[in-house]
Structures are given as structure tokens and as C-alpha cells.
Amino acid sequence: MTHISVIISIYRCEDSILELYERLGKALTEISPEYEIIFVNDASPENDWELIQDICKKDKKVKALNFSRNFGQHYAIAAGLSHAAGEWVVVMDGDLEDTPEDITKLYNQAQTGYDIVYADYKENIKPILIRNFSRLYHKLFNFLANNTEEKGNARFVILNKVVVDNFNKLENRQVHFGPLLHSLGFKDFKLPLDPQKVENKSSYTFTKKLNLAINSIISHSTILLRVSIAIGFFFSLCAFLFGTYVIIQKISGIQVKLGWSSIITSIYFVSGLIMIVAGILGMYIESIIYEVKGTPRYIIKETLNF
């Protein structure tokens, strides 16, 4: 029986795959000889899959999934979780930013009675713009999702089999690993770790991160809809009060002069708000359509050693 599984989403990790494999083998052997490493190739345009194929031929403990196209890291994680056989499952990045040797620390902490143990990096070595964007996103997400508890790094985490089985039961077509994992409600712990600085350029562009953040918020929170209703009521009330004010002035015989510029400004302002609210509704409708279409989360083109 497999004791521990490691799931690694691979995209543009050609320079780190071999070192990652060797270091993982040494680290996992210290925990248990019964382990498996699952590489999920997210249709990387580099030679990632060729390297993984070579490793799988030499080592049957290494397994691999190859996507038909690029679906995204969160879908790769979901695919790995659905194929993992271990009593404990580790999720980590493939660029060596997450240190393989730290798996032992996560595992030992989990043995003290936790279902989930997150890596909590004490020092953030990423550029200040990325740090600020990440901090803003998490604060905004926690507010919109009514979540006051800060979580650790969901991309480097260890889960027990009960958590994995329940995660696999989720039927969301849009997969956002961290929020979905947090929503399960299992006992968790944040373990302080030192991050490993790597020179590899991240495949996550600002646009990808922004799209992921928007989709994650839309998928896990409906507060924007309630805010839209509140905005509509507020401006309706303002219009009603202003109309009442004009009527009272008219009845009182006071001539009210409204300038063309103020009217045009008001029209553009209210029209802009209407478009914003309509856009928010459109994003929710898009999310609903995506869910009800029933399209597969991902398509696996090829598997190795399963």
C-alpha cells in the first residue's frame, strides 16, 4: 500500500525536473519506502514530458499524467488528487521553490493530529508588486467569502486520505484548489518554513493571476450580487430624494435651473454604474453556464505507470 504520494503540476519546469526527482526520492525514502511521485504535465511547451517519460521508464514509483492542452495548475492538482493512492498526499510546485526536504517537516507536523498542514513561509522573497497583489487578493477574497482566518500556502501542503477523498467528491467544474480545500473544514495547521529562492521565471503572468483571482472570487462568493443590489437601491433612493426636492421647489414657486453639464454627468455616472452591475451579473451567469454545461474539468491524453 502506498503511504505517501506527491503531486507536482509541471509547466515550463524543464530545468528543475531531474533535480526535483532526485531530491524527492531521498526525502520520501526517509518517511516510507512506499511512496509515489505523480507528475501532471499541463501541456508544457518545453521538453518537460520527454524528461518525465525517461524518469518513468527507470522508476515505477514515478507516475505521470499528460494533459491534451493547457488547463491550468489547479486542474492539474485536481487530476493528481483523483489518481493519488497514498494515505498522505503532498501537493507542491515543480520549480523547486518548495523544498522537497521540507516534506518531512509537513509530514511530522501532520502526525500530531492535523488533517491538513500548510507551508507558511516566514519570508516572502517574491517581488514587491507580486507580494502586494497577493496580499490584496487574499484580503479581498477573505472579505467577500466571509472568511476571517488566514491560511497558509495551499500550493505546498500535505493532506490525509480523508481530505483527498472528500475533495474528489466535489463536483465544481471550475477548480480553485486553495478555496475549495479551505471550504472542507478539516483541522489544519500552518507550519513556518523558509522559502527557497529560484531563478526560474514564473509561468503565471499578471493577466493569468488576475483572471484566476476574479474567477475564484466569483466561484466562491455571492456578496458582489448583494453589493450590486445595495448600489441600485442607494442610487434609486438618491434619485427619489432629488425628485422630491425638485417637486417641492416647483410647488413653492422656486425656479430650478439645472445645467446641461450636470445632467450629462449624472447620466454618464449612473450609466457607468449600470454597466458595472450588469458586468458583475454577466460574470456570475458565465460561471453558471460553465457549471451546467458539464464539460470535463480536464482531458488526460496519456498516463504512465498507472
Task: Write a structural description.
- There is one protein chain.
- This protein has 10 helices and 8 strands.
- Helix content is 51%, strand content 17%.
- The model has no long low-confidence stretch (mean pLDDT 80).
- It starts with a strand and ends with a strand.
- The longest helix is centred in the C-terminal third of the chain and has 34 residues, at 260-293.
- The protein has 306 residues and is of the alpha/beta class.
- The protein has one domain: Spore Coat Polysaccharide Biosynthesis Protein SpsA, Chain A.
- Strands 7-5-6-4-1-2-3-8 form an 8-stranded mixed β-sheet, sandwiched between helices.
Keywords:
8 strands, 10 helices, 306 residues, 8-stranded mixed β-sheet, 51% helix, single chain, Spore Coat Polysaccharide Biosynthesis Protein SpsA, Chain A, alpha/beta, elongated
Structural class call reads alpha/beta
What is the subunit arrangement here? Answer: single chain
Work out the strand percent: 15-25%
Q: What would the CATH topology be? A: Spore Coat Polysaccharide Biosynthesis Protein SpsA, Chain A
Q: Return the string of H and E elements.
A: EHEHEHEHEHEHHEHHHE
The major β-sheet equals:
8 strands, mixed
The rounded Rg comes to 25 Å
